[in-house]
Amino acid sequence: MRLGFSLPVFGKAAATPGGIARYAREAEQAGAAGFWVGDRLLSPVKPVVSYPGYDTMPEEFHTAQDPFTALAIAAAVTETAVLGSSTINATQYQAVNFARLLTSLDVASNGRLLPGLGIGWSPDEYEAVGVPMAERGKRLDDLLDLLEKWWTQDTVTHEGVGYRVAESHIGLKPVRKPPIHLAGFGERSLRRVAERADGWLPVWSVPEQYPADVITSTLAKLRADAERAGRDPQALSVALRVNTDPGTDAGAIAESVARIVELVEPDHTFVDLTYLTDGVEEHLDLTGRLLELTAKG
Length: 297
Fold this sequence. Notes:
Elements: E1 3-6, H1 19-30, E2 34-37, H2 67-77, E3 82-85, E4 88-89, H3 95-108, E5 113-114, E6 116-118, H4 123-129, H5 136-152, E7 155-159, E8 164-169, E9 181-182, H6 187-196, E10 199-200, E11 203-206, H7 213-228, E12 237-244, H8 250-264, E13 268-271, H9 280-296
Parallel strand pairs: 1-2, 1-13, 2-3, 3-5, 4-6, 6-9, 9-10, 10-12, 11-12, 12-13
Antiparallel strand pairs: 7-8
Helix pairs in contact: 1-2, 1-9, 2-3, 3-5, 6-7, 8-9
């Protein structure tokens, strides 16, 4: 099993000067297959919508790094690891700037970028960036249209949602067209995955919160829907995030990861360490322990 891990972008570890660079460099040397970021702009004191499972927001989100900066740092200090996101709230960003950011990251990493995109759930964050939350689905479809042009055409013109791109030379192209993975379990989100995405971003939890067949049955439906849309169903990739509760034992994580990977057979798997560590040293220690345990399994 090739296992990836979250970069220390949230919580106390995120505030460590030079911490992301040190973690990415040493974790890749230890055998980490990929490094992943999440995206949290705000941690409201009284959120309009609380974080799932909480009355407010987890303390870890009070401190948050910029996901693009974190990926750029990781790109600079690593050679082979996949650099992914699960998930960036893509519709909270201006589309043209977002396209340039992703392209620059792919070039900087020599083609290792795996952009995992979603539409977010926080009304507070949408209000903060001045984007109507009700438009997020429409804006994601528009962004996918723009990225297709940005990555495949030498000159680009585009009529977007609330913006217009005059015919322009776009000379910077990715090393290879980044495989866009989309998040979501809702009907419309899953239809978008089947019809437009290169992959899906399911989530598993340790301790387990639902049966594994929630993922496997959804994946089977996605691939059937992709085939009906005239696409190759087996080309639909899977990047599985494994969430972990505070205090979860490394052995339990490794055991659960091994079981879900055997059932789902994802193309990429990473463990989110956000709630398990308070610093970069702990992040590295747990990474090494999980790599040892999964290698034995």
